[in-house]
């Protein structure tokens, strides 16, 4: 297939999927459900939305500050203003072209701080590896929080505790067998998976070169605590979600994080994923979708505004 056509499809297809999901969400809802969703959104308490936005901005600032800890071992540093604006420019780019933000972010900091692009981009890759590890950690914590509910759910769907136990043992054995196959495989696809896994390990090892390890770990935890906090405070905007505990909130956080990678900035997919997860916790669809739209809409709006302003001010600040 023509490489140019492939690039165009990578841009158009996620956006088309997002538009389709918005249409599907509206078309599949009854008039009463659509009305209730709009009422929830229009009646949302703005103070919780503002608090969520503040948490979002603080997380981006912390990410920009943490970036210097990765740049220092390779002999470079960047002004916080430039790092922050480069981060926001990247988020803005991802809304138009998925996964283009990392490249633009690296190019921006390379232009305004005279850091070689390859080295700047390498630190961004290391950062993404650390983010993946944090997401996996949150998934593990969520499973611990929801293990009791998950067990009872499986018991209702599958006959007997013994079958559940056997299923878990089989999954563990399959995982061990898969890892052994990966070590010796000559299959090109499996080799890519293995290399990706080794890349993750290398990214984790790169932390050992950081001089201020404590500060780096602190900001990493701060970033992800603020991410979860953004979800937690928005629950108070919808009466039906206000009583949710941390377990369901973490479950929605994971669903939202995965949905963000399926379409441009999670358009369409994010509210549907949130609503689907909240149905498991007896939150009706209109309330779940309102929760998703309030969170996605507010965070996307601030990313667009601050990202656009960053485009404008970067050349001004760096005359």
Summed up:
The chain is mainly alpha-helical and 319 residues long. Helices cover 80% and strands 0% of the residues. InterPro entries: L-PG_synthase/AglD.
Topology:
Blueprint: H1 3-28, H2 31-42, H3 46-71, H4 80-96, H5 101-113, H6 117-145, H7 147-157, H8 161-184, H9 188-205, H10 213-234, H11 246-259, H12 269-279, H13 285-317
Helix pairs in contact: 2-13, 3-4, 3-10, 3-13, 4-5, 4-13, 5-6, 6-9, 6-11, 10-11, 11-12, 12-13
- Rg to the nearest angstrom? 21 Å
Pattern of helices and strands: HHHHHHHHHHHHH
Percent of residues in beta strands: under 5%
Largest sheet: none
Mean pLDDT comes to 82
The stretches of 5 or more residues where confidence is low (pLDDT under 50) are none
Question: What is the count of distinct domains?
Answer: 1
Number of strands: 0
> Could you give the distance between the termini?
44 Å
Global outline: globular
Global structural class: mainly alpha
Keywords: Cell membrane, Membrane, Transmembrane, Transmembrane helix
Protein name: Lysylphosphatidylglycerol synthase transmembrane domain-containing protein
InterPro entries: L-PG_synthase/AglD
Pfam family, one: LPG_synthase_TM
């Amino acid at each position: 297939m023509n490489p140019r056509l492939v690039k165009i499809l990578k841009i158009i297809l996620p956006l088309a999927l997002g538009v389709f999901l918005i249409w599907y969400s509206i078309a599949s809802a009854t008039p009463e459900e659509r009305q209730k969703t709009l009422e929830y959104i229009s009646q949302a308490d703005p103070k919780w939305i503002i608090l969520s936005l503040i948490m979002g901005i603080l997380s981006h600032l912390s990410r920009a500050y943490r970036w210097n800890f990765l740049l220092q071992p390779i002999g470079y540093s960047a002004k916080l203003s430039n790092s922050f604006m480069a981060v926001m420019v990247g988020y803005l780019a991802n809304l138009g072209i998925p996964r283009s933000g990392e490249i633009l972010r690296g190019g921006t900091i390379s232009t305004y701080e005279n850091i070689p692009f390859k080295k700047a981009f390498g630190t961004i890759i290391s950062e993404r590896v650390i983010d993946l590890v944090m997401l996996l950690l949150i998934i593990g914590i969520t499973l611990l929080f929801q293990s009791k509910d998950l067990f009872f759910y499986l018991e209702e769907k599958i006959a007997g505790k013994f079958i559940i136990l056997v299923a878990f043992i089989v999954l563990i054995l399959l995982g061990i067998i898969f890892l052994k196959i990966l070590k010796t495989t000559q299959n090109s696809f499996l080799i890519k998976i293995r290399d990706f896994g080794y890349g993750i390990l290398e990214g984790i090892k790169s932390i050992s070169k950081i001089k201020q390890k404590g500060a780096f770990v602190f900001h990493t935890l701060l970033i992800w605590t603020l991410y979860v906090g953004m979800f937690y405070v928005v629950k108070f905007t919808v009466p039906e979600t206000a009583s949710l505990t941390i377990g369901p909130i973490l479950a929605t956080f994971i669903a939202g994080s995965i949905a963000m990678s399926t379409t441009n900035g999670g358009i369409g997919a994010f509210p549907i994923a949130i609503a689907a997860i909240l149905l498991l916790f007896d939150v009706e669809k209109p309330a779940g979708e309102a929760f998703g739209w309030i969170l996605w809409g507010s965070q996307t709006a601030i990313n667009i505004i601050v990202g656009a302003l960053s485009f404008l001010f970067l050349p001004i600040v760096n005359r």
